[in-house]
């Protein structure tokens, strides 16, 4: 299976999501985040997905990336960087106006301070007050000004979330753009490491997820246990099974290229995720 490409640049079959590097419920040392990113890149994960709103205006993905590329400027051309924005950082409500889109892009560029370009930019949510077509016109102007590119669609896609396969998104993307699949491990539930709500620390944003609420959580864990049994029969881990399922969809049966972006918070976790990717390379088990 050949390597996928975005913007005519070859990328690994599995990317790296930076959301986990944001505080939840508290921040880890910046050096740990830098080490995690470095290890991921060393092991092949060269498509990175970040967010302007991953935590606060004072400390988010852009600050971490600035620090990383300050330390490793030679890696700037090795990494394909996608950044999500388009939110009002005071209200965290989508702002698809021209002023809102430009403010978000310019803020990300300011925080990166020339250390790294924005290869892809995505408005993370649809502004209900602005037609999508109008928002895209604003983004296109920024593309024409060489500030960003827009060449992929990011949606949640996992064994938990299969909506894109039946709501027309995957079909449309097959004609135009690859899909960036966020939360391919179901916010950690599809690793088998979260079997009780108490496994999620106080303040963890996942405690607010609908599928992790009391009553619902217990039913979903029953499904996790069924998947765990299937993984055991195949001689793989639950995480390997979950990632393999997403990866098996890519470019098959009329579907677009699909790039899952699991996250990691530490160098050890980056190594583990990349080992999963290594196991899955070329495999459709």
Count of separate DSSP helical elements: 8
Uncertain spans: none
Shape: globular
- Quick one: how many beta strands? 9
Terminal CA distance reads 13 Å
Main beta sheet, described? 4 strands, parallel
Instruction: Classify the helix fraction into a percent range.
Output: 25-40%
Q: Order of strands across the widest beta sheet?
A: 3-4-5-6
Order of helices and strands: EEEHEHEHEHEHEHHEH
Structural features, described:
The protein is of the alpha/beta class. Helix 1 (30-42) crosses helix 2 and helix 7 packs across helix 8. The mean pLDDT is 90. Strand 7 (153-156), helix 5 (169-176) and strand 8 form a beta-alpha-beta unit. The longest helix has 19 residues, at 216-234. The radius of gyration is 18 Å and the shape is globular. Strands 3-4-5-6 form a 4-stranded parallel β-sheet, covered by helices on one side. It has a 3-stranded parallel β-sheet with strand order 7-8-9. The protein is built from 8 helices and 9 strands.
Q: What layout of secondary structure does this protein have?
A:
Blueprint: E1 5-6, E2 9-10, E3 16-17, H1 30-42, E4 47-51, H2 61-71, E5 80-85, H3 98-112, E6 120-123, H4 132-144, E7 153-156, H5 169-176, E8 179-182, H6 216-234, H7 238-249, E9 258-261, H8 267-280
Question: Could you write a compact summary of the structure shown?
Answer:
This protein has 285 residues and is an alpha/beta fold. The chain is built from eight helices and nine strands.
List keywords for this structure.
4-stranded parallel beta sheet; 285 residues; alpha/beta; globular; 3-stranded parallel beta sheet
